[in-house]
C-alpha cells in the first residue's frame, strides 16, 4: 500500500493502484448501474403502461407497470446474497465485474423487447424477468463499489472517500433523464397527446436502453484494471474468510443488519417518492380526467434535472460532514429535516394550489435532503460489519431497505394520492423517516471504528480493560 495525493488531500491506495482510478471505478460502475435503473423508472411511468400494459384504465396500467418496477427490489436482496457470497469469499474485483455485466446485458435486452401488441402477454412477462435481472445485479453492485472506495481510504477520511459511489447515483439520474429529455426534443414527443404509432413509442424509447452497452464497455475496462482492496487482502492473509457469509451475518451480525436496514429506509422512500411517484403525479391529467397536476413531460423533466443537481452537490458535502461530526449526528439532523419535509407535500403539491414554482421548490428541497441522507451511507452501512462479511451484510441491509422503502413507495404513494390526497403521501414519508430516526438513535458511531478485524478485536479488548 502507498499514499497518493488527490487534489490537496492524501488517500491510501492499494498495491500501487492510483486513487484516481479507484475513484473512477467506484463511481463509473454505480453511474452505469443507476443509469440503467433510472431509465427503467422513467419508462415505467411514461412508456411501459402504454406499450406493455395497455388494457384497463390508465391508473390500472400505471400500477401494473410500477409493480414490475418494484419487482427489482425483491431481487436486490437475493443479488446481495449471491454477489455478497462471492465478494466476501473470492474478492471485490471479480464480483464487481460480474454485477456490471448482469445489469448491462439485462438493460440492453429490454431495449430489444417486442411489445404487448406484438406478442401479447409474453411481453410483460419478459419485461418482468429482465427487470428482475436488473435488481439482482444492482443488489451486488452497490456494496462492492462502496467497499472498493471505503477499504482503500485513509483513516479519518472514509466518509469523503466512500461518497464517490453515491455520487454515481445523481450522475446516472442526469444521464438517464437527459437521454429521455433529448429524445423528447428530437422526436417531438408529447405525453399529453400520446401517439403510439409515432417515432418515440415505435422505437425512440429503446435508444437509452441500447446505449447502456457503450457505458458497460467503459466500466469493464476500468474495473478490470483494479486489484483487491488492502483490507480484504489482509483479512485473507489472516485466514478470516468464512465458508458461508450469509450464515455468519445472520448468526453473529443480525443486530447491525437490522439497524442498517432501517437507517437506510427513509432515504429510499424519499428518493422514489420524490422522483418516480412525483413524475407520474406531475405529468398526470388534471381533474376531472385524472388526479395529477397536468404539467407537460418536458417541463417536469426540466425541473427534475435542475433538482438532481442539488442532489449531486450535497453528496460530497454529506461525506465531509460525516467525517467531521460523525455518522450519527449527520444522519440525525438530516432525518429530522425529512420528517418536517413530509408536511410540505400538501401545501406545495395539492391540485388547485400547486404551481410550477412550488413544484420546483418541492423537488429541490427533496433532492437536497436526498444528497445529505444518501451521501454518508456508503461509509455507514459497511462500517457496521467486519471485513469477512462486509460485502454481504452491507448489501443485504441496503437492499432490504430497498424493498421496505423504494420497492413499494411509488405504488403506495400513487394509491394514497388517488384515494386521500397528496398530504397523505407526505405523512407516509414522515412515518418512514421517524422509523429511520429511531434506528439512527440506536446506532453506534462508526467514524473512528477500525475496518480490520484484528484492530476491532484490539479495540474491544482495550475498551473492556478501561471499563
What does the average pLDDT come to?
A: 85
What is the count of DSSP helices, taking H or I runs of 4+ residues? Answer: 21
The sequence of SSEs as H and E is EEHHHHHHHHHHHHHHHHHHHHH
Judged by helices, strands and strand pairing, the structural class is: mainly alpha
Describe it.
The radius of gyration is 22 Å and the shape is globular. The protein has 21 helices and 2 strands. Strand 1 (2-6) and strand 2 form a beta hairpin. It starts with a strand and ends with a helix. It has a single domain (16-459), classed as Up-down Bundle (Growth Hormone, Chain: A), CATH 1.20.1250.20. Residues 1-14 and 458-464 have low confidence and may be disordered. It has a two-stranded antiparallel ribbon. It is an all-alpha fold and 467 residues long.
Quickly describe the structure.
With 467 residues, this protein is mainly α. It has helices at residues 19-46, 48-51, 58-89, 92-110, 116-119, 122-150, 158-187, 199-202, 207-223, 230-237, 245-252, 254-283, 297-325, 327-341, 345-349, 356-374, 377-383, 390-407, 409-419, 422-442, 453-466; strands at residues 2-6, 9-13. The protein has one domain (16-459): MFS general substrate transporter like domains (Growth Hormone, Chain: A, Up-down Bundle), CATH 1.20.1250.20.
